[in-house]
Queue: 2 jobs
Job 1
Amino acid sequence: MKVLVINSGSSSIKFQLLDMRGEQVLASGVVERIGEDLGKISCWMHPGSSAQSRVEKVEKIADHQSGMLKVGEVLCGGQDGVVRSSEEIGAVGHRVVHGGEAFHQPTVIDEEVVAAIQANIPLAPLHNPANLDGIRVARELFPSTPQVAVFDTAFHQTIPQRAHIYALPYELYERHRVRRYGFHGTSHKFVAGECARLMGRELSTTNLITIHLGNGCSMSAVEGGCSIDTSLGMTPLEGLVMGTRSGDVDPALHSFLERAAGMNLALIDGMLNNESGLKGICGFNDMRDIHEAAGKGDERARLALEVQTYRNKKYIGAYMAVLGRVDALVFTAGIGENDPIVRERSLAGLEHLGIELDVDKNNRRYKEPGALHSGSSRVQIWVIPTNEELAIARESMSVLEETNH
Ligand code: ADP
């Protein structure tokens, strides 16, 4: 079966078409700058193979409807197309950011599911409407193809109350569903499964700390394959230091800044999401730029690195305590997969907890999963490249099989 994976954002649609026999990527691309004067669609056909080719078009893409039409054209188009017609696509899997408490697993999309995603808009006002646009248009374009929603929050629905209830008046939870939801769930679940497989263990008896460090960063305590705590909260702002997001701050910050700096809530919200994190401390949000600047003696860049890796270490310690026995730590996403310095600093001094990095292994480049622990480390340490598209395609397939579609 061929599965089309859609990640629809406010001004972009990322897509990937996979042939699930052999889990091969047939095409992978993005429609960007939807609604602007000039948009762009770019796509690799048969990426990584000898038949690889690239399609790139710059033109106005008015809305998600025309964006999805372009995706259809590129995939089915002429001699370069990877399918003859859209009928060959057996399922469409959609990334949906916020499933609230309604969704514990991937779900076949119908009107009720659309309404439930809509009901969660207040919890993800930027993401869920864009995800819904993608779903609406894909359902129009592929009316007879089953469509599946795969939620970023679903994997974390196993987090117990003690870890998901904030110490606030309880009616805020009852009335407004204020609680920790967590995000990046598809990635945490994927690397947890892969790690147990690579360790030759049953996931159900394996305890892991999964560390997703990309532009957005989060860490999860995974017990027997179930998330039991995670660092992102009600929104994707809490926890670790991210590219432009602050992670944990004192909740009294808002009222202080209102009084001291005359800032209103919208300004503070924008600042915490877009002007903070690594960028807030040193002006760069890309870790490669930070290393370059730090190498030239930029003290702020060094500080940003120190603040981020210290926070990582603090959360690792917390999740060691939460899990009791930890079999492995897993690093993933842009920084986690590629940055030996961040990994080394985040784990420095944790030898007393049984975490010992092999410096040579840590310094190698990893395109495939690799083990980084020393021979005497009690806790294994892995780099496992995340693959959210493959995870969404797999989950879409399995939910369709379960529901006999
Ligand atoms: P997103 O959260 O947007 O999916 P990614 O997982 O692709 O992000 O991670 C993007 C981040 O990864 C970049 O901002 C950069 O900081 C970091 N990154 C990518 N490549 C490298 C590298 N070779 N060394 C260090 N950091 C890297």
Note: The first strand starts at residue 2 and ends at 8.
Job 2
Amino acid sequence: MQDLSFFSRRDFLKDAGLLSLAGAAFWAGGCESCQQQIQNRPTRKNIQTLWNANPSDPVITTYKNAVAAMKALPSSDPRSWEAQAQVHFNKCIHRNWLWLPWHRVYLLYLERICRKLTGDQTFALPYWNWNTHPAIPDPFWDTSSPLFDSNRAVTQTSQASASIIGTTVLQGILSETNFNLFASGPPPTSDLHQGPDATSGLEATPHNGIHGFVGGDMGTFLSPRDAVFYMHHNMCDCMWAHWNNDLNNANTNDPAWVNFSITDFVDENGSPVTVEAGITVLYPLLTYQFEPCSIGMQGGQKKLTGKQLEAFLRAGTPSKLEFGPRWEVRHAITAEVGKVSTSALSLDTAAIASALQGGPHTRVVLTVGDVQMPPKRDFYVRVFLNKPDVTAETSIDDPHFAGSFAFFFDESAMKGGAMPAGSSALPLTGFLVDVKPTLQKLNQAGSLPSQLHVSLVPVPYERREPVSGVVKLGRIELAVANF
Ligand code: C2O
């Protein structure tokens, strides 16, 4: 049995306080009962697995009924389906490290609204495991169901590419040791809705990639109109929890992250809530748990549990990347779907070689910077290093493959507050790719060349319609970074 005695009375009261009504109810019973409450916290499960066993599993039925009940509420009710989507449209945070806690809070209160509106107090929000099931799960395709969305760009059999949700790619993201490279970096200005050069790992690849793959509502900031949105984010949440709790990686301890107040949501009664980002790291220990969604890394990894794990997560760790030697090209670069764009960087191979010898706190980071947000985002970009003959067909199992990134943005929300008033141009964005593992592989296969060829390969999503697109950027940089 898991050791639960580490949750002190005071801490639990504080956390239970966030949970409002139910928290107060079990708190009244004393800490014996809070430990039980934690032990029996609801388990979030894989919705496709539930469906395969029984299409009328209570979790699926409750989610359907909850969505129907939310759709039946007037949009003036902040718990209504449309009001919940509008919160995202007007307030959502992306392209920086606050996206993770912001969406975690979103899901927690959505789950509580589902319980309240259906009376099913045991309900736990399920997730879409796109790694094991790369197509939109079956419960979302019944045209008479409240879970159906008619404007998706894919069909029931379309599968998202392994470049976005495949095991190799997700394992690479889960092996990341730095929070900023796992989760995206800090917002560069006081504007939380901006994020030049900060998008990475979990956000840049499976998160953005699944939004783009599904398309339709999911390709916009009104994505929560599609009920599969919450399943997608729950999988991102599960991967974050796995990275923390099973693989024992720490989140940032930067006070700008820990103390950030999330104030955009309401509880099951429609009352506004305030949650600090730092406390959300304890949710998967205290308030819910996941059926393992881990990607080829189940079991065996866990070193910290109970009291040590809680202390470790509360403490966090410095995550700021201190950039050392860097090599860059700075000129207009255009990459077009169906074409490959390659840039050459002249390297100091000795400096790179010594970074490759460095421990887990030394990374080699590729910045794809000053990227003009593309007006059409129905493609994603694969990155290859030193692969002169690369094409869109080159396998991602090729050792020269370094990662992928995708775009998620909505210019119509620019008027609604997600962008500074008055700005009309599409913003600049940028991506960080930790290429240390790829360079290590290439280094083992031979010597490091003094020129690094970085190839960007835009690849269309699997769609009903043919796609085209172009991405323009101004800078590619390779740097050694320590944290
Ligand atoms: Cu705020 Cu995946 O969206």
Note: The radius of gyration is 22 Å.
